[in-house]
Amino acid sequence: MVIIVIFAFLAGCSTHQTTLKQDGGYKIYAIEEQKIFQITYQEITSIVDDEIVNEIDGPERGFSTRMTWGLDWYNVFVKIVPVEGVSLSGKNVKGYFVELGGKGTYPTSRPQKIIDNIQSKLNRSGTGVMVSSYKKSSYQLERERWRLNERQSTRDGGASIMDRLLKLKILRDEGVLSEEEYQEKKFELLKKL
What we know:
Layout: H1 2-11, E1 13-18, E2 21-22, E3 25-29, H2 33-47, E4 53-56, E5 61-69, E6 72-87, E7 92-104, H3 110-125, E8 128-136, H4 143-146, H5 161-173, H6 179-191
Antiparallel strand pairs: 1-7, 2-3, 3-8, 4-5, 5-6, 6-7, 6-8
């Protein structure tokens, strides 16, 4: 019995959640692309404490973060998927759904809180449409138009808000900034998103 528990702990935990499957069917959100990225980013950062949230750029876009506690870790990937669907009334609809996946050795409820918060915010947006079928689509905006950083990423030669938030955290951890100064500057940076 002990061996099974140790093996399960070492094997780690994983999760997969989506805002697509709801009420026994499929629901997509006919929302502006930049708005769904903003909602997703804000809900991730509100849950993950001081962990860095990175942008995922590629065929599927979104955000990732690594939660840690001691030697344990949990990687979270949140993707925003563009789709086209047919509403229950037969109308063609373009929209998005959010998909969260994660894996690690750190058993945490934070990934579930992230997807629950995103879904709640999307439901309050009033843009949800039940569809009878859907297929993947393409993003509406080029990377530089949907990104949430005020400048180009460091890989593109500029300093992103994420980089600036990390520097603030380091300054706080080293005692250069007080907790109050850190929270104030962090709030100013997040307002720019």
